[in-house]
Amino acid sequence: MKTQDFLLELGTEELPPKLLVKLSSSLKDNIINELKQLNISTSNVTAYATPRRLAITIAELQSKQQDQIIEKKGPLVESPDKAIKGFAKSCGVGISELEKRSLGNKEYYFYKAKEAGKSIQSLLPRVIESSINNIPITRAMKWGDLDYSFVRPVHWLVMMLDNEVVPAHIMGLESGNTTKGLRSNEDTLLEISHANKYHSIMLNEAKIEVDFNKRKEIIRQQVLSVAKTNNAEVVIDDSLLDEVCALVEYPRAFSGSFDKKFLAVPEEALISAMKLHQKYFHMVDSKGNLLPFFISVANIESTNLQVVIEGNERVIHPRLADAEFFWNQDKSVRLDQRLGELENVLFMKSLGSMAEKAKRIESLSKYIANLVGFDADTSARAGSLSKSDLMSEMVGEFADLQGIMGGYYALNDGESKAVSIAIREHYQPRFSGDKLPSTNEGLVVAIADKLDTITGIYGIGQAPTGSKDPFALRRLALGLLRILLEARIELNLKELIDFSLNLHLKEVDRDSSLSIYQFMMERLKAYYKDLGVDGSIYEAVLAVSPNSPFDFHQRVEALNEFTQKNESKSLIESNKRIKNILKDFEGDHTKLNSKKLIEESEKKLYKATELITKQLTEKQDYKAIMLSLLDLKDVIDTFFETVMVNADDLELREARLMLISRVRALFLSVADISYLSS
Question: What is the pLDDT of residue 602?
Fold first, then answer.
């Protein structure tokens, strides 16, 4: 079949940098789905994105739809004539052209026809218009007196098949084959001679790299080169690199400097000012110390770069001066003196003020620290002061510094280093892959803070629903669980949830404890899925209901290792068989009278279980337990080969049921491995 190359470019005002990649991906996916619905295959679709344009190219796009067989089911043959004639008319044929076909015991009329495929040129306008309209946009804009809306006003539209324009009228724009270059050369129009030359024309004639990832790599290399020129190392935050890439079409990196006096301010504040407000990359020396230099990326080739540099240096100076002022001002008020101010800040309706939250974190921190043997007084002090920096000028300006500045202010107030670090790190882990707090007290306050938020918001009926999680409870739950598992902290999660719920105001539902526990266990399931642990292993451990997530984790690790052993398959199937046999058995295996056992194989099984039971008494090493249980394989196999469990003799039958119940109990001390059966 004949194919053609296709190009779409939608020219716009500067698109939101943090949404650019999402907008581009959505447009690409929408076009692919639209074409798929028309039975047009797409194998080589490329998306391009710059601040002023979204573009899609498709190589070797079918020039025409495949012919299709259209089939419609009509009324029963014995239906009234009016119904039959109506069906025929809707199909554009006479009754004589309908087919009769039996379905089950009844006969129906059917319409069947071959429909010629349409040309891709005639289909594309609707495909593209629908694809653009279906891009998810939270806040669409309208411009002028037009009825159209998009994330930003649109200005030009390119639609081509090979070297021909695809006629279309979309969002008030007539399609053509001309595009625009850089904003600085607004009057320059570029003619696209062929759809497959779009990328090369934009790069060679407009000096614009329209491929987002290639442009991103160009920026990375430029930034590294500038840092090398300054005999420094640059810290490249990937999210900042993405944002800068979404802000420039023609990147040109350069360095500037700022007054060394600002280095007296905590470096996180300086970095935040440079990164968040100015989109600058910061530089450090070989020891990781912040240097008074920055790297910015211009969107134009300047004939006098020094003017650009000086302009950026003038802009950053007041930003850093503000940070210096906030730092000096904030140090004059102690963190514990700010606790009263937190009374005026609402945490959330029905959950009280931030001061009340701080008190709950203090109580939870002391409770948790006492349970696990950490410093309770230090943990409680850090918990009490953990939210005070929210009232500081610095955090008011740079919200990403909450906790971090609290740590600095605590040291300035004369608090212990342990309290300072705990305050600084209690928001960790903030995101997937983030590191845990580095101290015991930090771990405790982090658990307390996350648990208070989860139980409170869940307890007032604001649990996540479907894909919606406005308060990021899933992220908080996963962070809390990561702390318990990776820091190896043994805590009863159900009791912890109950304690936290009872600290809240009366509006919080105390009966939501089980729901919160189940919600958190679902997050644990997701955690193991990300680690590649088979879901059946999670279910096998869940079946025995461990109270502690860390204990749960140890069982999962043991089971994961157990399933790698060749002998495990036979034991898994035996456990499933035993579970089925014991379905209606309610006897107590601890009351087994071994003298009732008569066959040699069942006597051997009893002795083997006795030996392992003695070995495993008071043992918590689940890996060792599972390895010991592997020794039962042969005796269990022999038992089932030679013994009829449901013997006619009632006493013998009960003894044998107690025996296999004893075997099952040994495995259940770790997990219900019958769940692992394929």
Answer: 87
Lookup: tokens for 72: 């419609």
Per cent of the chain over pLDDT 70 is 99
**The two three-digit tokens of residue 12, written as one number:** 């716009």
DSSP reduced 3-state for 433? coil
Residue 247 near residue 179 (C-beta atoms within 8 A): no
Give yes or no for a contact between 638 and 568, defined as CB atoms under 8 angstroms apart: no
Predicted structure pTM score: 0.81
**Of 330, 361, 396, at which residue does a domain stop?**
330
Tokens (6 digits) for 651:
């006493």
Which residues is 566 bridged to in the sheet?
none
What is the domain range of residue 607?
556-676
Average pLDDT value for residue range 503-532: 94
User: pLDDT tens digit string along 649-670?
Assistant: 888 888 888 888 988 888 888 9
Whether residue 230 sits in one domain with residue 196: no
pLDDT at 187 over 80: no
Collapse the DSSP code of 392 into the 3-class scheme (helix H, G, I; strand E, B; otherwise coil) and give the result.
coil
| β partners of residue 296 | 254
> What is the predicted pLDDT for the residue at 678?
67
Q: Is the pLDDT of residue 510 over 90?
A: yes
Alpha-carbon torsion (284, 290, 293, 299), positive or negative: positive
CA distances from 13 to 86, 152, 190 (A): 52, 6, 18
Q: Which structure tokens are listed for 310?
A: 């000086």
Q: Is residue 365 part of a domain?
A: yes
Of 255, 12, 36, the residue nearest 131 (C-alpha): 36
- Whose CA is closest to 459, among 507, 494, 503? 507
Measured in whole angstroms, the distance separating CA 179 from the mean position of its chain's CA atoms is 37
Domain-embedded: residue 336 = no
Interval 134-156: pLDDT, tens: 999 988 888 877 788 999 999 99
Q: Tell me how far the alpha carbon of residue 638 is from its chain's centroid.
A: 49
